[in-house]
Amino acid sequence: MSRLEIRRSLFDSSRISIIAIGRRRRPKHYSYQGLHVGALTKICPFCPGHEYMTPPATLVLTSSLEYLVEGEGERVRDWLVRIFPNKYPALLLNTEGSRGTISLYGYHEVIVESPIHSEEVYLENPKYMYYVFLALRRRIKEILGDDRIENVVVIKNRGPRAGASIVHPHLQLFANTFTPPVILSELQGFKNFKEKHGICPLCYMVNRIDEPRLVLESKHFIVYTRYAPKQAYELLIVPRKHSPCITNASDDELFDLAQVLSKVLRALLRLLGGVDYNYWIHCAPKNSEMEYHWHIEVQPVVETWGGYEKSSGVHIVTVSPEESAVELRNILKSL
Ligand SMILES: [Zn+2]
Ligand SMILES: [Zn+2]
Ligand SMILES: [Zn+2]
């Protein structure tokens, strides 16, 4: 079992650290590179038939679109999406560990996105991503039903440079008793913008026509390159409907989102030659009175951050957001 401790900086409240000693022992033989070797793919713990290599699922979406929960010693075989606790958690459900306002209590779960082992093949079939969003919407609602949980972040690591240790398409969910610093900072930004301009900043963006950073428009979503990116080609996916969390999205919106997200990821992979990337879903804290508009941020790993970026939060990028939008729009025409 890993040893965990959570800390907040005494002078920089935007800095929270989980010290996770045992996580260093995460299985290296599942390494991303290793799984490119044909024979080793047999040991992928997320592939169908290997369900016993992972803990029992807290939620399974079956091929007949039923939602099930696995008991100990029980595994569902005909699944489309499996969600289960991370074997090497950074947050714990049975913990007393806390420091002031922050606690290690929380959910750290893995979402296996499809039975398909290859991310590229998975992205060619957006209906699988739609199933992921259906399962996620349900699981996030369940977790937010826990009185102690305040905020849920869902993240994607694809590739070793983006922090992935397993190649099979999967997401991770982190549910905390506190709202992470980045979201707190966004809440303050939404408040400031609304006070100054009388409108939510993302609603303002959605209503702007002729935006040079526009990459893609769909029935329910708009994709832009970020105005002030941390990585070149960084994207923002914004729902047209003002809402604090993805849990309020309709089936129709989630279906549309799956088409949009898989398309922009394929565009990044094509344009940047199999680039590693992260993306994440940002939702407001539960029961927040503050203005918020949920969104997805996509960050390809293009630039290596040096001391200046790490020390200051100021990021140097080598392609302008307007230029990267042109390149992405052109690539999207050929997809
Ligand atoms: Zn696999
Ligand atoms: Zn809005
Ligand atoms: Zn955000």
In short:
The chain is α+β, with helices and mostly antiparallel strands and 335 residues long.
Descriptive report:
With 335 residues, the chain is of the alpha+beta class. The protein folds into 2 domains: 4-179, HIT family, subunit A; 182-333, HIT family, subunit A (2-Layer Sandwich), CATH 3.30.428.10. It contains 7 helices and 15 strands. The protein has helices at 119-123, 126-144, 181-197, 201-207, 251-271, 307-312, 321-333, and strands at 4-8, 16-20, 59-62, 67-68, 79-85, 98-99, 102-103, 106-112, 151-158, 170-176, 214-217, 221-225, 235-239, 277-282, 295-300. The strands form 3 sheets. Strands 4-3-5-8-10-9-14-15-13-12-11 form an 11-stranded antiparallel β-sheet. Strands 1-2 form a two-stranded antiparallel ribbon. It is globular. The structure holds zinc ion (3 copies). Residues 186, 282, 295, 297 line the site of one zinc ion.
Give the biggest beta sheet.
11 strands, antiparallel
Count of beta strands: 15
pLDDT below 50 for ≥5 consecutive residues: which ranges?
28-41
Shape: globular
CATH top level of the largest domain is: Alpha Beta
Overall SS class: alpha+beta
Strand order of the largest sheet: 4-3-5-8-10-9-14-15-13-12-11
How far is it from the N-terminal to the C-terminal residue, by CA? 46 Å
- CATH homology group of the largest domain: HIT-like
